Queue: 4 jobs
Job 1
Amino acid sequence: MTGREVYLDYAAATPVDPEVAAAMAPYLAERFWNPSAPYSRAREVRDDVERARGSIARALGARPDCLTFTAGATEANNLAFAAVEGHVVVDAIEHESVLACAATHARRTVRVGTDGLVDPAVVARAIRPETELVSVELANGEIGCVQPVREIARAVAAERARRLEAGERTPIYLHSDASQAAGALSVNVSSLGVDMLTLSAAKLYGPKQVGVLWASEDVRLRPLVYGGGQEGGVRSGTENVAGIVGMARALELAIERRASESAHLTALRERLRSRILGLVPWAHVSGPSNPKRRLPGLLSVSFAGIEARRLVIALEREGVFVGTGSACAASRMRVSHVLEAIGMPRELAEGSLRLTLGRPTTEEDVDHAAEAICRAVRAEATRLRLDDASQAARVAALMGSWR
């Protein structure tokens, strides 16, 4: 491994911001009290938890008593799906935790376009009279597409109004996993029009295994964890005070820095994109062409005929750490379900890297990584006796069959 290290997998994990760590530190030592205990020190810590809850609620434009803290986004998604028993509608590129929850219900999985975007009209047509939940993420963490959640909310609201007028009593809710989006996009629940929203501290330069589910007062949550009745009886267990305080501070910082950070990451992403395409012109970049529909710090790039897992190993030797999809898929070294769902030809999908930039990423990091990636691709192409002309023709043929 070389002396320089460049981390480009921030969609999988972010480091805890120093300000977040500082906010958490007292609750790991001197302020260790259990918030459920009756004495004054414990009540002080309980007040700190509630202040953190209020801070997150303000960021969401919501009531504090509608928030439930969980051990991460996966649990929050499970809690959202546990609120309903009937038919659900999801799209094909949701996070594995959402798809796994949907699999326990009667369901309809709607297709997405080749750019990963969900068509609200397709979602509307998938809703049945017995549908109780629609779940569409705010942004995808593998190819970076920002979904039209507001338009989908209008379709759900129209179905709700139809049911009310018809005297039908089946409720319908809209849930959105905003874990990958909260650092770059507004998560105001009224503006989005959602009934439930998932957030993860781990994607916001906060601690891992801390998440939150916001649910409107119309949603009746059913507990997954029983015990002492914490979190309004919805999620029992001693509160992770340090994690909750850290999550609140992480979200505050994300909102304070959102505009400048998004602009910075967009510029870095485009620099990385242009460097890679300049050195390997037959590389393919996935995701929406409209920049407003793309997360600022994410670049999904594919190299036809090249095995991504070999690239990951070669890049690690050079101190460059990248992903091939979600961390869940990458750990099993399989083709991402997202790339399969957008219809990407297998020759391209198997050679796909997910490059995600973060708060500490610099221009020098981007340039170093781009050169290392292209060296690794060139080395593999040479080993396989692939030249630029044949690769360009190969990609053109694959794109023609795909589009």
Note: The first strand starts at residue 6 and ends at 8.
Job 2
Amino acid sequence: MKRLLTALPLAAILLAGTSCSKELRWHELSGYAQGGTYSVKFASRGRSIKTDAVQQAVDSILTLIDTTLSGYNKGSQLSRYNAGAEVEPNGMFKEIYSISRRFFKETEGALDVAAAPLFDAWGFGFTTDSLPSPAMVDSLLAACGMDCLDENMKPVRDGIRPKLNFNAIAQGYSSDKIAAYLHSLGVTDMLVDIGEIYCEGLNPKGRPWRIGVDRPFYGNNTPGADLDGIWQGDGCGCGVVTSGNYRKYYEKDGQKYSHTIDPRTGYPVSHSLLSATIVAPNATAADAYATFCMVIGLDEAKSFITSRSDLEGYLIYDDNGEMKEWASSGFNLAVE
């Protein structure tokens, strides 16, 4: 936890060195993280906050996440655990594993971070393999699943210790971690985008945040270039996450294989749902439930969203070649 703790003195310095003021000042941060870029916008009200110090703290948190949870960083705790090493998990590793176990139980195995070998086999994990045989899928299914591990990541079934992959919630979790840090500084107006989004309060124009939902067609690889709709917040803090199969896929022998793998069957999903946008109390949950909707498909996703008072959703699906949308009653579509 040493890297995480280095951010705490920065927060203390920022608070100790602030001066009382009613002036609202906006700050913008950006950088590279998790194979892409991140953007953070926040307002300081009544405090003089040094942007450079906040940038340093944010980068420190993201570095801790990388050295703990990244499957691409070969020296991370996750990579060493997956390689078979005996790892003493830090607090962050324990926390995200515990969160993942709750999602696994809630979704009855549809969200399973211990299905990493399946994602690797289909070429959507930390390797480039693809099109495994049915026999291979069956053998991998027998050696996967969080039910093979206890709450401490120890094997409980025939010594099987499956590899882990936290990609289904890692970006949402990262956004929540940065938001929590900003909260510690007294920030209440923010947008944190680390691949997935957490937003709260108002934007620089003094209005609720607005977030575009991309049209989910193959070839739409530029976020924001072609929008299907725009969600508008109400000032409450929430995570807003879209999951879809239109950017991460490959095609062989005329058939498309999506990156959404159903860990219960071992195969990529094949249904009419093109993308799912979820609004939840935090970005970790929004990330998880957006993925969950993409696993279970349109009809089950509708039922799931409407059964939850804490969620809103926007589903885009294919209806005999025509793109259509469904929105839950509380999903606030902005009027242009």
Note: The chain has ten helices and 14 strands.
Job 3
Amino acid sequence: MAKEINSIGVLTSGGDAPGMNAAIRAVVRQSIFRGKKVFGIRRGYAGLLAGEISEMTSHDVSDTIGRGGTILQTARCLEFKRPEVVKEAARICEKKGIDGLVVIGGDGSFRGATELAKNEVNTIGVPGTIDLDIACTEYTIGFDTAVNTAIDAIDKIRDTSTSHERCSIVEVMGRGAGYIALWCGIANGAEDILLPERYDYDEQKIVDHIIEGRKKGKQHHLIINAEGIGHSTSMAKRIEAATGIETRATILGYMQRGGSPTAKDRVYASIMGAKAVDLLCEGKSNRVVGYRHGQYVDFDIIEALNMEKCIDPYMVDTSISLNNR
């Protein structure tokens, strides 16, 4: 018989992402709508272990849907990899009367959720990461805002790069995934896009491309470099030495995680947060919410973590054909 859920906890874990507050708001309000108590857990799993837990009302999440970051704060908790620590967290949930837990975060956060599920805490994951690197879902909360933030910054960099007839290398986030870099490269019309999934580390091809462009009369050259490749500053020095063209590197960094979420992030986060509550109320556990083929769906967390995600080869090939001219 499915475990009856009377109260639901919600936490954000790992890296913050725009739209997390919209997801928190949805969890709180959908829980109350379903007649459940809801508890906010501050600072992720670390806060759970420290007992930083308080009941939330609809008023607590008023006017939060448009705010960046996470009102519950977030933290990484390496101790949560130890079985005895997970057991203690489950004991705290039982003591506080938390029957179900919504975990908003990435793959590392979901691994913690599945361990809690083994200790009889019903858990549902909601994908919150700007990296878009969770294989079971076509969309993760924060990606759209991060890309739009980066696009705006890169447009400004291109303006000054053109004015000074420079080559610019702009490094964007994404850990080992190249989704942000690929989308920005296409949207900003970059001459070169360096993706961890495809990069062969042949800088001479980039150098030749820059020189060829200059011969054609191009006044600038924009390279989007993914975080998973990195080393943008040293790359800029080598390219400048090889081409004789002033080359500058800009690492956008954590600005991509901040800012008011876009409409897409607010809507997807709201529906995913509400879906997580509904799954708990149905007695489900160890599931992760996803978005596929226009539908909000759910998967077993372990199954989801074992899935592989590949960057779209057609998008990559098209980015090359569109940006080489």
Note: The chain has a mean pLDDT of 95.
Job 4
Amino acid sequence: MKKICVLLIAFSLVSCDQSSNETSDVVEAEQLSSLEQAAIEAGVIPDARNVSLSGAFERRSDLGEDRFCAVGNDEGGYQVGLLAVFGPDSKCEGLGSAERNGEIVQITLDSEQKCSFRASFDGVALKLPGNLPAACESYCTPRAGFGGVSFNLVGEGDAVARSTRGREIENLCPGG
């Protein structure tokens, strides 16, 4: 009987400790949320919920200039184009569509094999995941890939997006 009582007391203490951790996690999440809200109100970071994906995005490196563009809106979806450069003869380039739900952007490339993946958008940068479906390789030359590429917003709106140039695809976002 003593062993059972000792076990019950031990389980009670563990249970209390876990609920205490859960409570502190909730409080910590609320604090992070408050901190993020304060940063948004101060203009330090954008509110991703109020920033459109429509626009031109770039990232420059020693290997070249990566580009992403989106024409459209959250309600009707976006027409998108992507270019990732890995040197003078190595690249990935494709066209497709995107739908946005908060910070998640579902991108579907369909100008070669259909390739679909989720990217993240924080209002300033669009980040592609590191691991993409094999079909995405159809958009790339050997030793190149879209995986892990990120783009920074350089200009907002459809007009800016329509001026985004590709390598083999003249206009990455020609219409709307």
Note: The chain has two helices and eight strands.
